[in-house]
Design brief:
Elements: E1 18-19, E2 31-34, E3 39-42, E4 50-52, H1 82-89, H2 95-100, E5 104-106, E6 109-116, E7 119-126, E8 133-135, E9 153-157, H3 160-168, E10 174-176, H4 190-203, E11 208-211, H5 217-230, E12 235-237, H6 247-254, H7 256-264, E13 267-268, H8 281-290, H9 301-304, E14 314-318, H10 325-340, E15 344-347, H11 354-366, H12 380-393, E16 394-396, H13 406-420, E17 424-427, H14 442-460, E18 463-467, H15 495-499, E19 502-510, E20 516-526, E21 536-543, E22 548-551
Parallel strand pairs: 9-10, 9-11, 11-12, 14-18, 14-19, 15-16, 15-17, 17-18
Antiparallel strand pairs: 1-2, 2-3, 3-4, 5-6, 6-7, 7-8, 12-13, 19-20, 20-21, 21-22
Helix pairs in contact: 4-13, 5-13, 6-7, 11-12, 13-14
Amino acid sequence: MFIERFEDYGIQPKKGSKTKCPRCNHKSTSLSIDRDNGVWNCHGPDCDFRGRLKRDPALARPHQWNKKDYFKPVFEYKALSKKAIMWFANRGIDEAALERLKISLSDGHIVFPFFKDGEVAFLKYRGAKKSQMFTSKSPYKVFYGHDDISEEQTIVCEGELDKLSFDMAGLPASLSVPFGAPSIDATSFSDLDESLEHSHEKLSQVKRIVLAVDNDPCGRKLEEELARRLGKERCWRVIWPEGCKDANEVLMTFGPEFLKECVDNAQPYPIDGVFSIDHFEDKLLTLYDEGLTRGFSTGWFSMDHLFTVLPGELTIVTGIPGHGKSSFVEHMMINLIKDHELKAGIFSPEHQPVETHIARLAELYAGKPFGEHFKERISREELTATSKKLSKAINYMIPDEMKRSVDDILAMMRAMVMKNGVHFFVLDPWNDFDHSAMGNSETQYIRHSLAKIRMFAASHNAHVFLIAHPAKMQKDKTTGKYSIPTAYDISGSAHWYNMAHNIISVHRNPGDDGNDKHDVSVHVQKIKHKHCGQLGCANFVYQYETGRFVDAG
């Protein structure tokens, strides 16, 4: 797994996870090592000895928080009764479709087996009434029809009967979400998260995805999330005829040929970048009736007046190194997770090893320091509870150093949106990307790179925070202080300003004696939508013990 050893760095591992640090020679065993992940970190005073063994690129694996245990059910096929066959026939489904999908009978319940790669993943039971539904124990959630996914075209619908209806229309390359659409008030898509994770590899290869969900508010909510996760650029949406809510109703009312026509006439989300006014009519009327919607709150009253986090946008964050731009964005990230139940994706090679970064995030989440030298540190029980909460909300991108190009990172981000439902990303910093593809023109390279990131944000309705260091700053000869950086100070191109929807600069304000203080000003230097914020400055006090930023006002 690793092509290096701890001994190469002077570390002498012992049986446990602690040993002496070769750098500071602290008397105690202050160096923690993790053999499984090949990382070490010294907790001695004034010692920054930490690092990670290099992995064999052929065996490198992504960081994972945890794995869920699943129960594989025993499935015995039993032919349906005449009564059950008639029930399906009344809904336009014939015996051939039932046999192909191995629909069975058990103790008076209809059994829908959910297959993945030819094996039964879980079973779904349906009684005489639709409300009498349950599943096998601890189900491994996959789409109904996973094995029918086709690279050319795959239809996604909202129920087993709809999937069977497409079979009747000669469209077997269809699948259904396992548990229907979420409620209109739902804030998470946990069932969809698991299904997309388990079908990610096959779905990522599909060229055309046709969304054929129910024509109701819950169905439209599901459609929007599916398009966001799967990528709007390859999604088409079916428009059902008036009076029909779903595929099965169309089959029973108009027949299989008409159902196929509905799929053939599906409307693409993007049409070569050109849209008619009619395409936006529903959303326009919603804006008129409900008003313009601001972005998500940042968690600070003073900041919300200037900036809110709107999905689909790119925000550039800059500031002098060491002035707290990464720390401020991390605190905002934790606020978004706690206040809005959003999910985050992080690319931050600067913050290694990962467990040390997680410790910082735990401080922000719990509001208590992590280090043992603090009196009121977070307890082990609080840390465990906080870690579990963070594990549901945060995913790390840890690619090999040779796979950090903009295209490589965007590919990982697409996978995280599909599999994990990530809502926003923190890319920190820009200079840790692999820029070997830059060529002769840095200006054109930056423009094209930022355009790709903007397009990703819009396509997946995700917000992207991109942290970029300014070029070397010069102190004012009169005051001896640094000026507040802007996007124009970032090395390479004015496109940093032009391509960003929003720009934030984080600046630590030195005292009159020239020493750094904990007073931090956050400057909103560009805002795309006036209903989401305005230009201005918010002042904070930085709390060293917890890493938190507190409104100064």
